[in-house]
Design brief:
The longest helix has 20 residues. The protein is globular, with a radius of gyration of 19 Å. Strands 6-5-4-7-8 form a 5-stranded antiparallel sheet. Helices cover 37% and strands 26% of the residues. With 204 residues, it is α+β, with helices and mostly antiparallel strands.
Length: 204
């Protein structure tokens, strides 16, 4: 592991600079994620991430706001208002999400200019459709604090869904109550199932 980490370290730092993030490809909730601020931290971060997956993502760190959008639907999905997560830790880590009760605060709706917010919402829907998502997903963005450029960070196809989770809270702020959201999701699942039943599985 250490040898592989050293090889990746040179390429990553040359291309991305410092600081950067090292994270496992297929882990959620910021599990296995480390922020690397100096070269000596890189090998340890790689070895830590590789405990949770066989592949690792190395990303450039940017000074950004964390913006979330809930998407709902099948072929014609809709996007909710935007929400913002502000971490009280150095980044939105596993500890900030689940261990520290004061680790983060959310703001719904996010305080973002109308035209920029609309562009982010449209991109959320475009990303959702591009990946062939159905029923629901939460699409997360980074919004650069200096340039106002935004980046689609990830699409969560199984977002948290308690009454206090961001996904239902975003829809509640958009005007869709929790019970109505559940009804809508059931209807979407039935529609998708019906379409699947119509697919031919044999060639005559």
């Amino acid at each position: 592991m250490a040898k592989q980490s050293a090889i990746n370290h040179g390429n990553a730092v040359n291309k991305l600079g410092l600081p950067l993030f090292v994270k496992p490809v297929c882990a959620g909730s910021s599990v296995g994620v480390k922020k690397v601020k100096e070269q000596a931290m890189f090998a340890e971060a790689m070895d830590f991430a590789l405990q949770f997956d066989v592949r690792v993502i190395i990303e450039q760190a940017i000074d950004c706001r964390e913006i979330e959008c809930a998407v709902l639907g099948n072929e014609d999905p809709a996007a909710s208002v935007l929400g913002e997560i502000t971490s009280n830790h150095e980044f939105y880590s596993y500890e900030a999400k689940y261990i520290d009760p004061a680790g983060a605060v959310s703001r719904i709706p996010a305080q973002i200019d109308g035209s920029l917010a609309e562009a982010i919402r449209k991109t959320a829907v475009a990303g959702y459709l591009a990946l062939g998502c159905s029923s629901m997903a939460r699409v997360d963005f980074f919004l650069d604090k200096k340039s106002n450029e935004f980046y689609l960070n990830e699409i969560n196809t199984l977002p948290g869904f308690t009454s206090i989770s961001m996904y239902p809270k975003l829809w509640e702020a958009t005007g869709l109550q929790y019970s109505d959201l559940l009804d809508r999701l059931i209807t979407l699942a039935q529609e998708r199932h019906k379409r699947k039943l119509a697919i031919k599985t044999e060639v005559n």
